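Open question from group meeting: does this chain pack into something compact, or does most of it stay loose? Before anyone orders reagents, we agreed to write out a predicted structure and look at it together. Recording both the input and the output here so the notebook holds the full record.
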Amino acid sequence: MDLELRHLRVLCALADSGSVGKAATALGYTQPAMSTQLRRIEGLLGEGVFVRSNSGIELTPFGAQVVSQAREVLALTDNLTRLRRHSTSTEAHRLRLGVINTPAVPMLLDALRDACPDLVVSISSVYATGELISLLESGELDAGLGCDYPGMPIRHSPNLEHRAIKTVPVFVATHASHPLSHRLEIPLEGLSEDTWFVSSDDGVGWPGAFYDACRAAGFKPAVTHEFHMLDQLLSMISRGLGVTAVQPTVCPTSGVLIKPLAGDPLWQRHLLLWRRDLIEASVVETLHHHAVRTHRHLLAQAPHFQKWVARSYATPRSNDGPG
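Structure tokens returned:
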């Protein structure tokens, strides 16, 4: 006969009650049956677990080790049982997800719907990652998709955690007939005389990172407009009204070219953030997995990014940036 979970429960009941009679009552045994069980268990273990005392029974040093490990095994078994019940439950689970302006959202929601049919996701569109962090800190959101910039990592309380999804270079969107449109990569300094559409403060480093890159390139943009509505922004770019920095996952529209900047002076790290106490670890893993897959798919579908990747691997760069 092998040691079974019921034997472990007998040992724990005996240790907790300190009495064969009380342990028998707790588990629904007769006292003789409990004594018989104990003898069988000690026979299986090959050593005594309890000794008799004036007050009942007490653990031997060997018995103390056995009961300690028995409790661990029973706790793990109970957790597995709860996990099974949770996974088969028909109860819908809710996820309050905040997202900054990213084309990844529709595909991510599709993936989550297929992978987690019982997960009800409510989306909140948030412009600034700084605002997203505030909403997570206050408990108004469970998780969020945000960003930061190399050298300027985000800051938050211990209530939150974050994990990188992908770090990518920042590209530039220009009119299709821009004087530098023939270049494979556009030097940032070559855009010093252009009008720039620059999105507003995101609370974690933008547009400071942009202006720092311009200073490093030897210029300050002469004319800038603060604007971040992507559809209208690309429409204005297509009319030759200016240029703008964009994520490489952005799809070009008619009259717009998306190009990398020479030397990759600007990078952006996409992140998953979440509240430790409001979201289960399994949901975090699923959300992160599908966010990574979605970004990879979008980048694989962006010809301007794939051309950049091909050149990057063909010619080692002095500034490859984070991976």
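Observations to bring back to the group:
The longest helix spans residues 61-88.
The chain has a mean pLDDT of 88.
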